[in-house]
Write the structure tokens for this entry.
Amino acid sequence: MNNILEVKDLNISFHTYAGEVQAIRGVNFELKKGETLAIVGESGSGKSVTTKSIMRLLPKSNSEIKQGSQILFDGKNLAELSDKAMEKIRGKDISMIFQDPMTSLNPTMKIGKQIAEPLIKHQNFSKAQAKQRALELLELVGLPNPEIRINQYPHQFSGGQRQRIVIAVALACNPKVLIADEPTTALDVTIQAQILDLMKDLQNKIDTSIIFITHDLGVVASVADRVAVMYGGKIVEVGTVDEIFYNSQHPYTWGLISSMPSIDTEDDELFVIPGSPPDLLNPPKGDAFAARNRYAMAIDQSEEPPMFKVSNTHYAATWLLHPDAPEIDPPEAVQRRRKQFPGNVTKGEK
Amino acid sequence: MSEKMNEKLIEVKNLKLFFNEGKKNEVKAVNDISFDIYKGETLGLVGESGCGKSTTGRTLIRLYNATDGEVNYRGENVHNVKNKEKTLEFNRRMQMIFQDPYASLNPRMKVVDIIAEGIDLHGLASSKQEREEKVHELLEIVGLNRDHAGRYPHEFSGGQRQRIGIARALAVDPEFIIADEPISALDVSIQAQVVNLMRKLQKDKGLTYLFIAHDLSMVKYISDRIGVMYFGKLVELTTSEELYKNPLHPYTQSLLSSIPFPDPDYERQRVRKTYDPKSHNYTDSDDVKMREVKPGHFVYCSEKEMQEMQKTF
């Protein structure tokens, strides 16, 4: 059993004045030891809500993890754990890097103290031990002159340096799972490249499993082993990074891939996903993507597609994979990519 | 495009913009840059945050007063204009689209009034009815519909708001639009919609764009030529094809090698280069400036560096 984390039938709702927003509607996935799983999708697709629920960071006042949802980690169901028990896991076994390094550090605390905090709390380190470990961690994330820097405040660092510090805090207790929520979106491309290299390098060294949330497909191609595509509160396609980029099956994934110009896109118009994401206050009947899908069939309006199997590692929720579905031509950019994929399968089995 | 490219619309000469000039904390945000923008083209401006690309755009449209240098619009220096009529005329010809569609629309104004503000200011509509008709027409051009006119900005999504921002810029019938990161706040699927719209408008109305961005793959797609900025200097300027195939300045090379592309095979082979500004070893006697290393390909370099680059062709 090499699954470190398993999410089963996760359903989450938010209670608002307008009614119940069904943000997550039956999400299933697993995270294997040592792998990087990228979750992609547009804003509102539920990627951040999913990961926040793993950390149990959703606001108590208006959010609800539905009965029957399972987040299995280390033999425990995190969805049902008490706050006290969760505190022992959060920041120790599972930790998180947030998007904005400017706001995720405490501006009034020296950075050394912020790195030492989880060590003293979770691992019963003495102050001196914690400082020693903080120095090691700063070295590990590539911050020069750690002896001096450890006594400085966050405002004395640049954005890229701050993100390195945030990573050092997250890695302090050698977590088994690291959740990175758009860790490079706020950074410049050159700095982004450094941070991505650093994360890959660290993963090799300490063997952590990473869940990487992003909407940048370039970043996905560079870091991910597997990819899950989310739309309207569900995972609509999941597969290895090659399967998703070279042999994607879901029309939404096609749209994402072909709406970005590649290196050799020429003068032709960009492929556009028309319309806007579904309203999860009243989730549409049938396939949530049907309204924006130019390949939609009659059945998409009435019945939700199940996950069809494409290969042992590749699944997609679209009726196009049903044995009775008509043959269609995917967008040109997708067809071009398919030529790079050996032995591709077009029809799946349920 | 080539025959159109001969007509210079904008000529930027030795433009400088310093914040806190003469003080201890002086920032040379834009430090002596020169370039031309031709009629009907899209010039992309890229670089990391703080390199001065937005400041350059804002100085062109006089949101900042230049510290030194000229911005000539059809031969007239826009920073020298003193009388009100001329100012109005320039404002009509040059418009801007901003990065954040949430911050750039007044939340207390209805869409119809946001779009018509320019029409009113320049007296472009003779009656209330004409004003309304113009707004409806603009909404349809940018892919919204006339029912949207009576609504407030908060009722729209990010992509729709950016369309309103574009409609507002188009309202006064400009010929030059500065787009300062118009798509960076939008989702990937919506980015493509806005970029396609901007390209269509350019074709239909013969617009000229200055497109400022840090997403290099989109910049390459939309631009005819691209300028790369680094610490207030323009370090390379050439056609977008040439820049990607044959980057000459080491900073450009480092920038291009850092962009992740949505292609796992390419990513596995990518070798990242780093740029160290000290590697040039410039001495005081080196005359470092923009030089035309190849026809139409300008690089910020010394005489010696230029000769070395030319050897490699």
Notes: Residues 181 and 213 of chain B are 5 Å apart (CA to CA). Chain B is about 35% helix and 25% strand.
